[in-house]
Amino acid sequence: MKTQKINLKRHFCVLLLSLICISTILSGCAKEQTESPDSNTAAETPSSTESNTNNSAEQTTNPNPDSAESNTDGLPSGVKVKKILKDESIKNGYHKKVELLTDGGKRKTITDPNGDIIMKYIEYEGIILKADGNKVDVQVEQGETQTLDIPDQVVIEDEDRVGLKQGVEIEWEVNTDGQIQSVELDD
Questions:
Q1: What are the b/e assignments for 147-170, b being 16+ CB within 10 Å?
Q2: For residue 117, how many other CB atoms are within 10 A of its CB?
Q3: Per residue in 120-176, pLDDT tens?
Q4: Is the Cβ–Cβ distance between 143 and 104 less than 8 Å?
Q5: Residue 162 lies inside a defined structural domain of this protein
Q6: What pTM value is reported for the model?
Q7: N or C end of the chain: smaller count of CB under 10 Å?
Q8: Structural domain of residue 155, as residue ranges?
Q9: Residue 177 domain-assigned?
């Protein structure tokens, strides 16, 4: 289990680093297209104003955690934020927020230095109670029972080849539309 979690964290870090590199490259390309060599000094002056604009935009896109919009954005119906587990800056101005949800999930949000969301998903962990093909009943850690219908196109990571059966630990990620993105099993 620890090896799989380390591997999962390693995959997450590689994905995050890739996204950071891609966004850095794309933002550099966009900047080069909008600036001409003659306008370098003119472009520097608005950047300080632009920075102030981004700071105020970041404050409005990251509202008070008690506001209704921040607590329900991308959450399943009836689910609310129970508490904030992490709210920290990571490298190069990126920000990571992890929130514990009332259904036992953990909503993870990563924003770029401008406050734009680059990754947002909900992660669940639990124990399989019953499995019938790709339909699985799970007791969610710190939550209630959920029934998952794992789509055929989602590859189930199962290094130990334990399969979908009773008593097996399961972790899965859901996007903001409620669709399962990944599933991992552990004995």
A1: ebebeeeeeeebeeeeebeeebbb
A2: 15
A3: 999 999 999 999 999 999 999 988 899 999 999 999 999 999 999 999 999 999 998
A4: yes
A5: yes
A6: 0.61
A7: N
A8: 123-186
A9: yes
Query: How many whole angstroms separate alpha carbon 3 and alpha carbon 23?
Result: 30
pLDDT number for residue 32: 45
Handedness of CA 72, 78, 83, 86 (dihedral sign): negative
**What's the rounded Cα separation, in Å, for the pair 100 and 106?**
5
Q: Please tell me the distance from the alpha carbon of residue 172 to that of residue 156, in angstroms, as a whole number.
A: 9
Q: Domain total for the chain?
A: 1
Say if residues 160 and 187 touch (Cβ distance below 8 Å): yes
Query: What distance in Å separates the CA atoms of residue 27 and residue 165, rounded to the nearest whole number?
Result: 46
Residue 117 domain-assigned (yes or no): no
Q: Which of 59, 29, 35 is nearest to 47 (CA)?
A: 35
pLDDT of residue 103: 92
pLDDT at 77: 85
Asked if residue 173 is part of any domain, the answer here is: yes
- For the chain, give me the number of helices (H) and strands (E)? 3, 9
- Nearest CA-CA partner of 130 in 164, 166, 163, 172: 166
Structure confidence by residue, pLDDT tens digits, 78-125:
899 999 999 999 989 999 999 999 999 999 999 999 999 999 999 999
**Domain CATH for 158:** 2.40.50.140
Tokens 């896109």 correspond to 61
